[in-house]
Each structure stands twice: as C-alpha cells, then as structure tokens.
Amino acid sequence: MFTAQTTQERIVGSTGCDDRSRLSVEEQNVDRKANEADASMAEKVERALWNNGVLRNTDYGEIDVLVNDGVVTLRGHVINTTNQQGAAEAARTIPGVVEVKSYLVPDDKITLEVARALGEIERDHGVKFFTGARNGVVVLTGEAGSAEVRSMAEKYAANVPGVRCVINSIQAPGVDLQAEEKRFLQPSIGEPIYFRDGLFGKVRKVIINPNNRRVIAMLLPARYSNSHPDSRSPAYEGGQSPEHLIVVPVSDIRHLTRNSGFLETNSSEAAKYADFDPARFVSPGEEWTPPYPYCPNEVLFPAETSKKS
To answer: Of all helices (H) and strands (E), which one includes residue 240?
Structure first.
C-alpha cells in the first residue's frame, strides 16, 4: 500500500514560494481549472481539513492549499504544532496524494522563539516583556525604560522567521500607544482595491517595514501621474499617459477582506498619492524570509528604513 510522504518545514528558512505559481490571481484560477485532477484533489483536501473539527473551529480559514501533480502544499499559520500535524495528516488521507509539503507555521513555536530572542534584552535592561501570537501576528506587551529599548524589542521579534508582523504595545516614556496604528493589514498581491466610488487597481507589490514586518504601503497601477507625461516615451501615444505605479499607504484602507480592499478616499482624491520612485525603495536580501503570504519578489523596503535596520 502506497503511503504519501509528508515534509514538515521548520520555521526557519522556507516559505513554500517555490511550490506555488507566480502567475496573476486570474491566471492561477484558469490554470487550476485546466488541471481538473489537481483541482479536484485540492477540493478534497480542503474538505478533509473542514471535517477535522479542531481545524474547522480554529485554523481552517488560515490554511492555503495548492496541488500540483498530486503534490499537496499547505501554507499559512496555525495555533499549535498539533494543528500543524493534523492538517498534514488530513491531507494524506486523500487517495492519490503523492506528497504533502507543509509550510504551516505554528504559533506556539513562534511564541517560544520570540521569547528566546527577547531574553537578551530582558537580561541586559532589567525588563520583562510578554509575548502573544495569533496566526503569526506577534503582540508585545510590558514596559521598557526607553523608546530605544522598546524599538529594540520590536526588531528582535521581527527577526524571527515565520512572524507575520509585530504589534508593539510595550509602554515606554514618550511613546503614545494610542497614536500608533494597531490594525493588522496585509493586502494580497493581485487583490483589487476600490475607491469609495469605484475600482482603483490591483496590488502589484507591498512595502514592508523590516523592523516590524508590517505592511505600510502598497503599489497600485494608475493611469495618471503627478508629473507630466514624457512624449518621447514609447508608451505615450495619441496623447495617452503611460500606466504609472503609485504608492498608497495602508492607513488609507477603510476595510480589507481576503478578496478586496476599500479605501477611505474617492477617485477625485487620487492625485494625492505619490508616484512610485524605485530609488526610494530596495529589495529584501536573500537571507530575509518574507511574512506569509508574500514571496520575496512581491516585497520592497523603504530605503531609509532598510539603512537603519
């Protein structure tokens, strides 16, 4: 009797990006429909995950399933190692599955590794931090003697691979916690973003602050520019401006779902967004692991933040 293999990936060093197509969302859907066997198997795996009562009540909505030639890839975050193993076991029960590659990251491991990373700061500065994690989102609480120590704790936590982002609620002198953005926002690549009065565009890339792994902006295409179009450009034909990428802060997002995002602004206010200037951003280094669900080529860092980190 053939038994499907299971590859359990550690937190460190792997995201599963090589196991998923880098096509657009529409192209991925078309490709999935074209391969009926893989599509059918993916549906069966998702059903098996749903039939697991523990997963259904906890992590079902956080697990992505991809099937390619009978190889099942699981990506996402789960609350503990038990659910990590349970998801892989559920996938293996489907007839025809050749291998299960699990890139699921359990919160209990993240919590442990973040606590270890913060131990050095706690010893050196005589402080105590408290760490919680939910679906890879780490929340830090406690008190620090200075804003510098508080920022150091944030960076140490963000350096743990597998962390999706760090929400820093540590109290420190001169820090106004109420003024800081506490929402966890991760617009998906290819996700449509809407003005209040209509479609804006689809997310091309995201800008991440490497000090806390939080998405701070997204690149969207727009057929306008804050500067005059260059008539010498091959894209400039018949008086039409070429397509530009613009930088939109995620703080302008009013509501975000897994399938679409909605801004606070109307289309009449679109000109306030700056054109994308490649000189102001850098690509992550090869050693940096992007937060789920992103892959390295979908992320940029602000140049000034990267220099400080």
So the answer is: none
Q: What is the largest CA-CA distance in the chain?
A: 68
Which residue in 83, 73, 89 sits closest to 107, CA to CA? 83
- Strand-pair category, 63-68 with 71-78: antiparallel
* SS3 state of residue 134: strand
pLDDT digits (tens, 9 = 90+) for 209-257: 999 999 999 999 875 544 444 443 333 344 444 568 999 999 999 999 9
- Contact between 186 and 215 under an 8 Å Cβ cutoff? The reply is yes
Strands, E assignment, the chain: 5-8, 63-68, 71-78, 99-106, 129-134, 137-142, 165-168, 192-195, 198-202, 205-209, 214-222, 244-249, 253-256, 261-263, 274-275, 281-282, 299-302
Tokens of 231: 């008539």
Q: For residues 95 and 118, what is the distance between their CA atoms, to the nearest angstrom?
A: 45
Nearest to 15 by CA among 306, 309, 211, 286: 286
**Distance of alpha carbon 161 from alpha carbon 122, whole angstroms:** 21
Nearest to 66 by CA among 96, 103, 106: 103
User: Cα separation of 9 and 118, whole Å?
Assistant: 24
**By the 8 A CB rule, do 139 and 111 touch?**
no
pLDDT in tens, 54-82: 999 999 999 999 999 999 999 999 999 99
Query: Could you give the count of Cα atoms lying within 13 Å of 82 in the half-sphere of its Cβ?
Result: 6
Name the pTM for this structure: 0.79
Domains of the chain: 5-105 (3.30.1340.30), 108-179 (3.30.1340), 192-308 (no CATH)
Q: In the numeric block, which tokens belong to residue 241?
A: 């401006």
Beta bridge partners of 235: none
Q: What does DSSP say about strands 192-195 and 165-168: parallel, antiparallel, or unpaired?
A: unpaired
> Using CA of residue 13, residue 276, residue 186, residue 216, what is the dihedral sign?
positive
